[in-house]
């Protein structure tokens, strides 16, 4: 679960290392989970590119440390919280994903046409 002011890793190859969550884009939501959109600012950058630390960006949550129960009764959890950076048109900024996607994201929330590129650029799905 991701709340305001929580710090996360970035799961794509944009050059951004760590971010700080500013807001969750759901209506009346205080907690973000798998597949939710967030608004964030940059804390650390790996490479000096066109990203500015004080500018506001949007992202999609792909990994959460909190255990999530699946329909078959098993649980899934990840080691860290991670996100994917998105443009204003909800297209990914990176060309490659570094972390796996879960089945819940692929089947449920990413069936929209905006997120087809995210599914195709992921290496593997858990």
Count every beta strand, where a strand is a DSSP E run of 2 or more residues.
7
Provide the domain count.
Answer: 1
Q: How far apart lie the N and C ends? A: 18 Å
Briefly, what CATH class?
Mainly Beta
Shape: globular
Helix content range? under 10%
Radius of gyration: 14 Å
Compute the number of helices. Answer: 2
What would CATH call the architecture?
Answer: Beta Barrel
Strand content: 25-35%
Give me the secondary-structure category. mainly beta
Largest sheet: 5 strands, mixed, barrel
Fourth-tier CATH superfamily name = Ribosomal protein L14/L23
Please mark out the parts with pLDDT under 50 across 5 or more consecutive residues, or reply none: none
- Give, in spatial order, the strands making up the sheet with the most strands: 1-2-3-4-7
